[in-house]
From TrEMBL:
SUPFAM superfamilies listed in its UniProt record: Nucleotidylyl transferase, PUA domain-like
Pathway: Sulfur metabolism; hydrogen sulfide biosynthesis; sulfite from sulfate: step 1/3
GO biological process, one term: sulfate assimilation
Entry protein name: sulfate adenylyltransferase
Domain Sulphate adenylyltransferase catalytic: 85-298
Organism: Thalassionema nitzschioides
Molecular-function GO terms, alphabetical: ATP binding; sulfate adenylyltransferase (ATP) activity
Length: 300
């Protein structure tokens, strides 16, 4: 574990106590202290050292002058606004003889998401009787994202509304770094530790745009390609997410099928959805679950 600090007095050999408020969380016995090469760190982590990448900006402006590493001894788990079970607790709750497909998200789950991760169980690489672990990141994310405690509430009401025995729900105290394909690999490793055998890789997963030009830092399918290339090494099978659209005639189908059949596709952008939400307008049920919309409005 690496910590950042501006404290000149902290030195290797010292042991400190980490606290969450007044609650002791862990002790750290420092073994090394160094001044990092931050541009190189960003280049290796994010694929770019440009300051307009949110990760590079965070490293440059929020992290301390020094990094310190050492031995961590856990004392207590943090107390959070929402429950975050440990990897072992989650593993023990999952079937040990079936495939477990992880679905990662950082936003409320809407109809298209639900269709996507339930249909993933029909993928040719997923065995019969498999289950989905919906495992959202509930830590701080981007400035315009919905707060983690509100997202948690939307997941809980949706879990109750759908009551699907094939879908399990747990929550990850993690903040997205928007690191594209490298972050996809990290998520695969994390979900393997939580007991998952498969991982759904979406288009432009953990993607990011320049805050200056608006250009994408990563290709739309870089994350999927990187996941496939490293799947055997990681021991996690990637499941590409279906490109689903809603049609008046047949509900949710793949975009290719809709185009082939000449179906009437209905669209609602995220921006338009937020405008309708703020304006108190009716949200079409083909787009969002009523229970989720209710929570979002109550916590606006």
């Amino acid at each position: 574990v690496v910590f950042d600090t501006d404290d000149e007095d902290l030195k290797p050999g010292m042991t400190i106590l980490l606290k969450d408020g007044d609650r002791p969380i862990a002790t750290v016995k420092f073994t090394e202290k160094f001044a990092p090469n931050k541009p190189l760190e960003c280049l290796k982590c994010y694929g770019t050292s440009q300051i307009e990448h949110p990760g590079s900006l965070m490293v440059a402006t929020e992290r301390g002058r020094y990094y310190m590493g050492g031995e961590v001894t856990g004392l207590n788990l943090p107390i959070r606004e929402f429950p975050c079970r440990t990897p072992k607790e989650v593993r023990d709750s999952l079937p040990d003889d079936k495939d477990v497909v992880a679905f990662q998200c950082r936003n409320p789950v809407h109809r298209a998401h639900y269709e996507l991760f339930t249909r993933a169980l029909d993928d040719e690489n997923v065995g019969e009787g498999g289950v989905v672990l919906v495992h959202p990141t509930c830590g701080p994310t981007q400035a315009d994202d919905i707060p983690g405690n509100v997202r948690y509430k939307t997941y809980e009401v949706l879990k109750e509304e759908t009551a699907d025995p094939r879908v399990k729900w747990d929550y990850l105290p993690y903040s997205m770094h928007m690191a594209g394909p490298r972050e996809a690999i990290q998520h695969m490793i994390i979900r393997k530790n939580f007991g998952c055998t498969h991982f759904i890789i979406g288009r432009d997963m953990a993607g990011s745009k320049s805050s200056i030009t608006g250009d994408d830092f990563y290709g739309a399918y870089d994350a999927q390609d990187t996941a496939k290339a490293n799947a055997e090494k990681l021991g996690v099978t990637p499941v590409p997410s279906l490109n689903l659209v809603y049609c008046e005639e047949e509900g949710y189908v793949t975009a290719d099928f809709a185009e082939e059949k000449g179906l009437s596709i209905k669209k609602l952008s995220g921006t338009k959805f937020r405008q309708m939400l703020r304006g108190g307008e009716d949200i079409p049920e083909w787009f969002a679950f009523k229970s989720v919309v209710k929570v979002l409005r109550e916590n606006a």
